[in-house]
Amino acid sequence: MRFLKIFVIVQILFYSESSFAQKSSLPIHWHHSNSDQGYFGVNTNQAYEYISNQKLSLKPVVVAVIDGDLDTNHEDLKSNLWVYTKPNKHYPEAVNGWNFLGTSNNTHITKVGTEAFREYKRLRPKYENTKISDWKKKQDIAEFNYFLQVKKDAKIQGYLNFFPIIKLTYEAFRLTDSTIKAQNLDGSALSIKDLANLKSDATTQEYIEAARRSSFRYAETTKWNDLYAFQVQEYQTAVKRIESLDDQSNPRYTIGDNIKSLGDKYYGNAVLVDSNSFHGTFVGGLIAADRHNEIGINGIADNAKLMGIRAVPDGDEFDKDIALSIRFAVDYGANIINMSFGKYYSPNSKWVTDAIKYAMRKNVIVVQAAGNDNKNLDTINSYPIKPAKIKKTKNSYLRIGASTSEGTKASFSNYGSKEVDFFAPGEKVTSTSTFDQYKTANGTSFSAPIVSGVAALVWGVYPELKAYEVVEILKRSAAKNHVAGLQNYAVTPGIVDAYQALLIAYEYVKK
How many domains is the chain built from? Predict the structure, then answer.
């Protein structure tokens, strides 16, 4: 999952609890409101009033967060964690969850690239520099066409075509930076506009002018050091991408399992926190941040217990890790599985689909984020895909789009009148970040856990319900909270409503 590209669009708003009001244009708990209160939230506040007035009790519900991290020491999460204390020879020390990205020496993989790029590299030795007429077998022709598609989506051709220009541009910037340093000028104060006054010998002067001309995309007030740092990064990225084409090494191999075998499943470690990631911790906070400690934020479900499962690196997740994470969650008692990730290529998608079906057969709800590319999922595959109907098993899978505080589809949210079930808040929502921090961010990644939280709340009040019944109830609550601005964007063009869900659930149990 590309956190900053596919499922998270982050506003850079790091702040402490005391600065929420100053930094956010919306109340930090707007997503708990309802439209009568001015914000199209999920009506959590009224739901808790109903629970209190009816003197209803809440049973614990375990919610597995399959993601990139979970800070189990966070001040606002540590009281609401799933805890496993039995001896476990297969997953030792799996007290609060498991890390399928971990190595035996307690390190873990981080950046892994896109699935399209991995698939391009896999097929490149066979199909690069060939044409379709070179292939006679149907299987080869189909694979060749697939190769062309992943090559396009991997965006490697742009690097190959323009690398000579990227290299020359980098050289111009490098020599310009050397000149600035040689003349004892302050690059942090020098702007692009000031480059016109920079003087050197004739040859270097040409490079300086080239650097200035190639900076037309930026404001003239942009500082040199910032611009140069970006140019270095762009060049290094291009070099790395091109050099990696013939490098068959894969960071995933450092874990030590057989990546091609689903049967080789006992690998990883118990390290759940990651200093380079906040995503899973943010997701967890929306579900189950402590509602009674008077710090930070309030989660949706008082009764939720978070099971952390790391399987989503910076890049597209591996199908094996996701499939085993789902099965781990089910086997260790999760009632709900939150999956705030996704991708557009999945070479072993059947492994994941079979795992989702396994969860559904075991009476587990699976909640999936729709994605952040403003794409119609009725026309393209986004993985994991919605499972087909299963014999003797009713649907307990949901795919969720992101809505705004005004009740419209978030501009980035994927949609689909067949593939997206309904919506939940996903723009400018505030939650927990790693190391006792808080953040405001956008993404369907955060709509999904809000739905997972509502599901946990309803199931906690009425534990006799089946998974598919809770899913039906959430859909019906969204239908009651129909919003005109969501028409044609989902099966049910509305926003999930916790209060309405409780009323509908009561109808189910009193039958």
Answer: 3
